[in-house]
Amino acid sequence: MEIIIDTSRHCIETGSKQKYEHLLRQYFKSGCSEKEKQILENNIQALVYFLEHADFSDLRNQYQTRFPDQASSVLVFPEKLEHMHIQLKDTVLYPVWRT
User: Fold this and answer.
1) What's the CA gap between 95 and 69, in Å, rounded?
2) pLDDT at site 88
3) Which residue has the higher pLDDT, 8 or 3?
4) Residue 5: enclosing H or E segment and its boundaries?
5) Which of 11, 23, 86, 93 has the greatest count of CB atoms below 10 A from its CB?
6) What is the pTM of this model?
7) Which of 33, 7, 3 is closest to 20 using CA atoms?
8) Confidence band (pLDDT; 50, 70, 90) for 7?
9) Tally of CB atoms within 10 A around 86
10) Rounded CA gap, 13 and 19, in Å?
11) What is the pLDDT of residues 18-67, one digit of tens each?
């Protein structure tokens, strides 16, 4: 699965937090089907893992040096969340995980 994170006005951490809040609002919105809720739950779970475990200091440094004008990023998460990565144009960034 993939989650698009807006990094046009904020760092990757703030963009991820805003996306998390947006997904939570969508989840509790009335009229959401069970299938949509399941997809939202998976995305929320992945963002929670990312927000709790990624070393955002390292990610900010990588972004500022290599992608100063990047408007959006794609957080790609496979079945095992610890293998998630960030896709930027032709480059893949693997977060450093805090222990």
Assistant:
1) 19
2) 85
3) 3
4) strand 2-6
5) 86
6) 0.89
7) 3
8) confident
9) 25
10) 10
11) 999 999 999 998 888 999 999 999 999 999 999 999 999 999 888 777 77
Token output for 73: 């990023």
Sheet containing 2-6: order of strands: 2-6, 72-76, 85-88, 91-93
**Would you list the DSSP string of 24-69?**
HHHHHSTT--HHHHHHHHHHHHHHHHHHHHB-HHHHHHHHHHH-TT
pLDDT in tens, 61-93: 887 777 777 778 899 999 899 999 999 888 889
Calpha distance 78→3 (Å, rounded): 12
Q: How many CA atoms lie within 13 A of 64 on its CB side?
A: 8
Cα–Cα distance, 36 to 74 (Å, whole number): 20
Dihedral of CA atoms 29, 41, 82, 77 in degrees, nearest 10, equals -70
- Label residues 7-44 b or e (16+ Cβ within 10 Å = b): beeeebbebbeebbeebeeeeeeeeeeeeeeeebeebb
